[in-house]
Amino acid sequence: MSGQEPRDGYRENERRNEQGRTRNRGQGGPRKYSASAPGQRKRAADPARLVAFRTLREVSGSDAYANLVLPKMIREYQLDRRDAGFATELAYGALRGQGFYDAILATLVDRDLSELDPAILDALRLGAHQLLAMRVPKHAALDETVSLARAQIGAGPSGLINAVLRRVSGQEADQWTEQLGSAASSESERLSIEHSHPDWIVRALRGALITHGRDASELEALLEADNLAPLVNLVSLPGLGDLAGALESGAEPGTLLSDSATYKHGDVARVPGVKEGTVRVQDAGSQVMARALANIELPEAGEDRYWLDMCAGPGGKAALLGAIAVQRDARLTANEPTEHRARLVENSLDAVPHDYWMVTTEDGRSFAGEDFAGDYDRIMVDAPCSGLGALRRRPESRWRKAPRDIPELTSLQGELLDAAFNAVRVGGVIGFVTCSPHQAETRLVVEDFLKRHENAALLDTSAAVSSVMYENAPPAGHDLGDGTTAQLWPHVHGTDAMFMAILTKKA
Hints:
With 507 residues, this protein is α/β, with parallel strands linked by helices. It has 19 helices and 12 strands. Helix 16 (405-423) links the parallel strand 8 and strand 9 (424-434).
C-alpha cells in the first residue's frame, strides 16, 4: 500500500501497534459492531420464550399436555406475572395456530415439514406466531427467536430459522390468509387453514351444528371461538365456600349461572378458597351439567340418597356433586378406574366432609354386574370422548385426534351407558355427558341406547339445563337443542361444547 492513502483516512502506522497488530478503527472507546456481527449476536434465550419453546418440545416430543407442562415450566424458571403471561400466550397461541403456521412454512421451506428437525419446526412456529399474531416488533420476534434457536438447537439451524422467518415477516397475517385461502381446493380446506383446525374436524363440527339444531352458517364463529383463550371459571362448593374473597380479588360474577365467577388477574391459586378446595377452577359448562343432574326432579318417588359419578376423574364434577350431596344428606360414590386419576378425585373431594363420599377404582363397565343392579338414584356418566368440545383449552389435542378414534369411543360410551342403566333404580336418572358435539358421540349414542332398552326414556334435558342457567327463558339464540338433549357451544354460551342427555328407567 506504499504511495497510496489508506481507506477511511487513517494512516497505516496509526492503525498498528508495536507488535504490528491492527488497532481498533474507532476513535477510542468500545469497539462498534454491526447488528449482524457474529461476536455481538445474543446467545442466551429469553426466559419467557424458552419456557414456551420447552413446552412445545414436551408437547410434540413426548405427547404431553400443555396445560400440565406449562405451569411447571413457569415455576421452574420463576417467571414473573408479565413473563408468565407472555409465555402462556406464545405457547398456547403457537399450538392453536399450528395448522395455519405450518401451511405458511410449507410454502417457504424447500422440503416437506416432516423432514425438518422437530425442534426447528417448533422454533419456526413460535417465531411465526410472534410475527403474525402478537404485538411483538418484527425485529424483536426475529432476533429473539434466532437467539433461542442458537442457544437451544445450534448455530447452523439458527441460520435456516432466520432466513425462513424473514420471509414469513414479508406479509401480514391477512395477506397470508388470502394467499393460502385462494389456493384451497374446498371451503372446508379454506376454513381448516384459516382457523387452524384439521379438515375432518371442520367437517365434523359443521355436521354437529346441524345435528343439534343450529345453522351451518355458525361454523366460522365456532372455529373462531375455539381459538380464543378461555376465561378461568370459578365455582364455590355449595354450603362449603363462597366467592366473596374471589370477587374482592378481582373476579367478576359469572353470567351463565349463580355461584360462579370468571377470573383473569394472574395466579388463580392466590384466590381465597382455591387452596382450601372450597373454590374451584371449573368450566361453566361442567358446572351446568353437574347442577342439572343434581337438580332435576326424579320421575318416580323414592329414596334420593345414593349417587354415582361413574367416570369421575379428575374430580371437578364429583366435588360439586359431593357438596350438593351433603346438603341433601346423600352419599356420593366417585369411581375412577385409573389409579393416578383416582388420587386426583380424592384431592378434589377433600374439602367435602368425608362421611358423604367414597372413591372407587372399578372399570365403569363393571357396574353392569348383578351386585350393582338398581343401587343408585342419580348417576353421572361423563364418558371418555374425543374432546372436540374442549379444543380451546387443549389446543394440541386437535392435532392428535383422527376420525378413526371415534368408533372405539362410541362403543365404550354405549357400554358405560348400559352399565349405568343396570345400576340405576327404577325412577332414577342418568346424566350422559360428553365434551364433544360430534353427532356420533352424542345423539347417535343416545338413540342406539334407547333402541337397546325399551324401558328407558329420555327426559327434557334442555329444560333441566336451562333451569340452572337462566332465571327466565334463554336469551335469543341461546337455544340448547331440540327440547330433549342439550348442547352448549363456545361461540354461543362461552363454555366448552358439552352435550347432555338425562335418561330414566321405567318399570
